[in-house]
Every structure is written in structure tokens, then in C-alpha cells.
Write a structure and sequence with these properties.
Blueprint: E1 2-3, H1 6-15, E2 17-21, E3 26-29, E4 36-37, E5 48-51, H2 58-68, E6 74-78, H3 84-91, E7 96-101, E8 106-110, E9 113-116, E10 122-125, H4 134-139, E11 144-147, H5 150-161, H6 163-170, H7 174-178, H8 181-200, H9 216-220, H10 224-231, H11 244-251, H12 261-270, H13 276-289, H14 298-309
């Protein structure tokens, strides 16, 4: 059963579900076969709840679940950001709440059509409660990868998600954006800043790709021909893929930039440092939310960020 917004209920009631992916899969679920509610039943008879809302909606979801969820239910946060599972645990203290991570990109193409544009398997915090659900995920083609140190995984995913604002501000699909060195250099600046701050905070991000996190900025800054050669064997991306942040801007919704670049800015403050590159990307996205520029060229965005990367990074007390 799906529980979500009225707009999605109406969309699926009209069109059903149309699911495709970068490998050529194409499946349809007719409207009559889609069970979608706009509010969970009292009580909600669910053994497993997957929370997939934007980070800004986590508290609302947790408070709703606290009123209807059976005590034995397991809750998994499959959301961007670092501490959504922590928010859920605080408001659902009697339940098993696990952190999860979705590595692949999904595009909402409208009329019930959702397209998986990149590869990857779901990752989740290791826990005995997962045992009874693993076969269900496997049958659905979404096998679970258990992780002992989920926080390191979430920080590694966040470093990759620093591309979300770059993609959103570029106005072009992910593959086209990443094929242009200037855009990649923007991402490299944001990642270098993030890696420096993570090191100061004693956080070591997990390795999610064949290229370790600390090497990624160098790869991103390499010439186009070299990047294509390495990246083609690293991650499958099809031409339709776009970031969810671009999608939010298109739909006029608030973005998750404060739970992505904002996490770097807040962590920097705890170590007495600054994160001007990530702070500026967040500012530009907030400006775009209000109708500002959303079609930055790679060169123009790089000229906005590069001077910030070379400014003094230590906060003045």
C-alpha cells in the first residue's frame, strides 16, 4: 500500500503505475491494482514501512505513524540526508527504525511514469529484523545490501548528492551535465570542501563507487575524454536521468538543498570552519525556488564558485 499526497493519489487513480529503467524494463500496473491512501488507516496493519518523503516532511510522517503504527512494525528511512532515521527514532521510540539509502536516480515523468535512470542496490542498516523481509525485496528486483556503518554510507551518498544542485541549476539531464568539464569542476569544488570538513570532524565516508571518495574530485576535474573512459565503467546513466532537485524546481516545490549542501555547512560550523562553496550553491537553489536563474552554464557557475574555494576557510571568532 502507498500512502502519500492527494496529487499523487489522483495521478495514479487516473493513469496507474508505469515503471521503466535504464536497462529497458517496461511494466504497467493498472489503476484498479494500485492501492493508494492519503492517510494511513487506524491502526495501520503493516509489518514494514518504507519512508521515502522529502527530508522536510520527516517529522510530519513520524507523528502520523506514531498514532497508527503497530509496535512490532519495522520502519526504514530511504531518504536523502544524514539524520532522517534519527528524527524517526526520536518520535517512534517503541519501534525498530533503520537508516537506508537509495543509490539510484528515479525520474517522475508524470502520468504515473517513474523511470530508474542509474544503477545501484538499496543499502540498509544491518539488523536482525531485516531477515523476514529480504526475500520480498529480492523478488521485487531490489535486493538489500546490509551495512554495519550506515552513517559512513549516508555521508558518502551525500557527497555524491552534492551534484543535485549543480544539475538543478544547469537545467540539463545528468548525463549531459556530467559530460561537461566545467559542471564537473563545480561538483569537485563542493566535494573537496565536503571532504575537508568531514576529515576535520573525524568522519570517514564509505566507498560506494569503484573510485574512493577522496579521489573523486580529481576524476571530476579530468579532461572530458578521460572522464568518459573511466565513468562509463563506473556507473550506468541513461539520457533521461535528472536530479530530484531539478524535478522539485520544475514543480515549484521546496528542495532538499538544506539537507544536502546544508549538512556540509552545518558540520563546518561545528569544527570552526566555513563551507562557502556549498553555502553558495544552497543560496542559488533557494533563489531558483523563488524564480531565479535555473539555466546556468558550467562556465558561469564555476566562475561563481571558484573564488569562494580559495578564500580563507577558518571562521573568525
Amino acid at each position: 500500500m502507498f500512502v502519500g499526497r492527494q496529487r499523487m493519489a489522483e495521478e495514479l487513480r487516473t493513469h496507474g503505475l508505469h515503471l521503466t529503467d535504464y536497462r529497458g524494463a517496461d511494466e504497467r500496473v493498472p489503476p484498479a491494482s494500485v492501492r493508494f491512501e492519503t492517510a494511513p488507516a487506524r491502526p495501520l496493519r503493516a509489518d514494514l514501512v518504507l519512508v521515502t518523503v522529502k527530508s522536510g516532511g520527516t517529522e510530519e510522517v513520524a507523528r502520523t505513524l506514531s498514532e497508527v503504527l503497530a509496535p512490532e512494525a519495522v520502519v526504514i528511512s530511504f531518504q536523502n540526508g544524514i539524520d532522517n532515521a534519527g528524527v524517526l527514532r526520536r518520535l517512534l521510540p517503541a519501534h525498530t527504525v533503520l537508516a537506508g539509502m537509495v543509490p539510484f536516480n528515479t525520474l517522475n515523468a508524470g502520468q504515473g511514469h517513474f523511470h530508474q535512470g542509474t544503477e545501484g542496490d538499496l543499502e540498509v542498516e544491518d539488523h536482525p529484523a531485516l531477515a523476514r523481509f529480504e526475500s520480498d525485496f529480492a523478488r521485487a528486483g531490489l535486493p538489500l545490501k546490509r551495512q554495519a556503518d550506515m552513517r559512513a554510507v549516508l555521508w558518502a551518498k551525500l557527497l555524491l548528492n552534492l551534484n543535485n544542485p549543480v544539475n538543478a541549476l544547469s537545467g540539463v539531464p545528468l548525463k549531459e551535465e556530467l559530460s561537461q568539464r566545467a559542471y564537473r569542476q563545480c561538483l569537485a569544488l563542493a566535494q573537496l570542501e565536503g571532504l575537508r570538513i568531514l576529515e576535520a570532524a573525524g568522519i570517514r565516508p564509505a566507498r560506494l563507487t569503484p573510485v574512493p571518495p577522496r579521489w573523486m574530485p580529481r576524476l571530476l576535474g579530468s579532461p572530458d575524454w578521460l572522464f568518459r573512459r573511466v565513468a562509463n565503467g563506473m556507473l550506468a546513466i541513461d539520457p533521461l536521468a535528472r536530479s530530484s532537485m531539478w524535478e522539485d524546481l520544475q514543480a515549484g516545490r521546496p528542495t532538499e538543498v538544506e539537507w544536502i549542501n546544508g549538512e556540509i555547512v552545518r558540520l563546518a560550523a561545528t569544527t570552526g570552519q566555513k563551507a562557502p562553496v556549498n553555502a553558495r550553491l544552497a543560496e542559488l537553489v533557494h533563489d531558483a525556488e523563488k524564480g531565479g536563474a535555473r539555466t546556468w552554464s558550467g562556465e558561469k557557475l564555476l566562475s561563481e564558485l571558484a573564488p569562494l574555494a580559495h578564500a580563507p576557510q577558518r571562521s573568525v571568532e
